Structure formats: C-alpha cells, structure tokens
Amino acid sequence: MIKVGIIGATGYAGQELVRILLGHKEAEIVWLGSKSYTGQKYSQVYGNMFEIVDEECLDDNMDELAKKADVIFTATPQGLAASLVNDEILKNTKLIDLSADFRLKDVKVYEDWYKLEHKSPQYLDEAVYGLCEINREKVKDARIIANPGCYTTCSILSLYPLVKEHMIDPNTIIVDAKSGTSGAGRSAKLANLYCEVNESIKAYGVTTHRHTPEIEEQLGYANGEPIMINFTPHLVPMNRGILVTAYATLKDNYSYEDIKKVYDKYYKDEKFVRVLEKGICPETRWVEGSNYVDVNFVIDERTKRVVVMGALDNVVKGAAGQAVQNMNIAFGLPEDEGLKLAPMFP
Questions:
Q1: How far apart are alpha carbons 296 and 176 in whole angstroms?
Q2: What percent of the chain is predicted at pLDDT more than 90?
Q3: Which residues of the chain register pLDDT less than 50?
Q4: Is 132 labeled as catalytic in the residue annotation?
Q5: 96-114 as b/e, with b when 16 or more CB fall inside 10 Å?
C-alpha cells in the first residue's frame, strides 16, 4: 500500500486528489495538509466528504510528512513546493508537484513569467515533466515529477503528433483555449464571482499567460528546436473543462488519412487519449469528471491549414487525475488504477 500525503488538500485540485485516491486500491492517504484549515475536519471544508473523510487537516510540514509518506502531492500556489523541498525529503519520498515550480528548465524563464524567485533551482535538471503519454519512461525513476498545467496538457497532446512528425510549421501555431472557472482555484477573487462570470465570456492573460512558455518548451522538444506560439485563454461560465482549438499551416498537401495515421501512431495504445471519429468535434461535457483527453482535427484545404481540437477536465486530467497517473507509473502500478472514471453526463 502506497502511503500518500497531500499538501494543499483543500484546493480544488487537492480535493480531487482526495476523491480519486479514496477509490485507489493501492493508496492510503496519511496526511491532509492545509495551512488555511489546520485543525479543522476535512468534511467541514468539503461537505461532500461527510462520513467519508473524518480526519482533521494538518499543516504543511513536509519534513515530518516525508517520514510517513511514500509520495507527496503538492497542490499549492507557485513557489511553495520549491521553498519546502530539500535533499532529506527526497531521500525519503517522491514529490509530485501540481504547481509550476519544476515544469520549466530555465530558471530565468520561470522567474520572468511567474515574477517569483525560484527557491530550489538545483532540482530543475532532474525534475521530470510528467506528461504521461510523452515522458512515461522518464517518470518511472523520477524523484520529482512536475505535473503539467491544464491548458498545456490539452494543447500539447492535441498538437504533439503533428509537431513531432514535422507536418506543420510550428511557428504558425495559434492556440485558442477556453476554461471553466475552477481553473482559477478556490480562493475568493472578484473576477470569479458568479455575477462577474455568468452569461459572459472573456479573454484574459492575452500574450502574457504563464502556460505559454510551458507549451513552447515541450513542443520545442518535440520539434527538435525552439518554437514560438500565440496562446490566448478565455474564461467561460462553467465549473470544469478545457477546450483547445489550435491552428497551424501544413507543410504539404496532407490528406485526412495521412494525418489520422499519425495520430493513431502516437495514441492508439493510450488509455486516456481518445482520437474521435472523422467529423466529430471534442466537447468538454464528454470528458467531465474523467481522465480522458478527446482530440480531433479538420483540414482547411482553402487556407492549407489544419484546425486541431482537444478537450479535457481541467481538474482531473489537467491536474489531479494526471498526478495520480504519474504516481501509478512511478510505482509500477497499472496506469489506470483509481482512474477508471467514466465521464459524467449530463
């Protein structure tokens, strides 16, 4: 039985980790960390856990937690995991970080985009970017796993086969993405109040969103050299879900069959990536509550461009579900253990 600790257990991603791990046959939660709710019963923070999780929330003492847990999930604001991790902790446990602290290899890029001083840059080289379908083998032996962002997971998996096979000009990529409000976290913010969000849609972080360098870095690895993209996120009035629509110029007159063959090459054996049938566009409602990513594409013969689409649940595959998938890989368990979650509908 894998002993699991969670720091940041009372955020949306943390709560989703708890929900998923309660159904995991090989995991036992030994620490529910929450600085804001230390000493309070978890079920008082999340009423859906009444008579399911009766334990009290503990603090964020990772040094003590590392002596009790085989793996620690940090579902915390940017900067906290990097400030807490040390050599002694990593001797005793694995770290799966759901923040951005270990996703970017260049510390200057992290500090420029996140406006934070990185507290443990010495670990950046060894940290593995935990996009399971691409870095599975590296995840197996990692001490630090950087769980990808939600927008980035959807964007990268949607575009990866075309970039990897050099079928598109990567510097023509435009990513238009939309997210539900849970992506902004649980803390109170004026811009996320019901009356501010309902019956509206808006772009935000235009040209400045922090997931931009993450997408560029990972697709750059696939391309074999750095790339630059346009990425624009939008907030829509729904709880969960991300929909990505990406555009790029094709390098040749590829047919539907040519491109479908490439997607099948990379994803036909992947449990959690579903390449939809021809003409079917992904919808967030088809992946809600699950660890699935749905992708598809349409060729625009008039403009010689391809339109690529992807959808996922930002709290599951975009956060907690992928973190558990990474844990399963790291501990040699079936990759879908605890994640056999059929999408909810409606």
A1: 15
A2: 95
A3: none
A4: no
A5: bbbbbbbbbeeeeebeebb
Tell me if 343 is assigned to some domain: no
Catalytic residue chosen out of the listed positions 132, 150, 195, 281? 150
256 and 110 within one domain: no
Alpha helices (H) along the chain: 12-21, 42-45, 62-65, 80-84, 87-92, 107-114, 132-139, 150-164, 194-197, 212-223, 256-267, 321-330
> For the CA atoms of 17, 295, 173, 237, what is the dihedral angle to 10 degrees?
-60
Of 179, 260, 163, nearest to 215 by C-alpha is 163
User: CA-to-CA distance for 28 and 23, rounded, in angstroms?
Assistant: 10
Q: Are residues 85 and 180 in the same domain?
A: no
Are 121 and 161 found together in one domain? Answer: no
The residue range of the domain holding 251 is 151-313
Same domain, residue pair 105 and 156: no
Same domain, 208 and 284: yes
Q: Per the structure block, which two tokens stand in for 26?
A: 């090989």
- Exposed/middle/buried for residue 12 (C-beta within 10 Å: 0-12, 13-18, 19+): buried
Integer angstrom CA distances of residue 124 from 6, 73, 176, 218: 21, 17, 29, 15
pLDDT digits 0-9 by tens, 253-268: 999 999 999 999 999 9
Amino acid in position 239 = N
Residues 6+ apart with CB under 8 A from 193: none
d(Cα 160, Cα 217) in Å, to the nearest integer?
A: 12
141 contacts 93 by C-beta, under 8 angstroms: no
- Render pLDDT for 182-229 as a digit per residue (tens, 0 to 9): 887 877 788 788 888 899 999 999 999 999 999 999 999 999 999 999
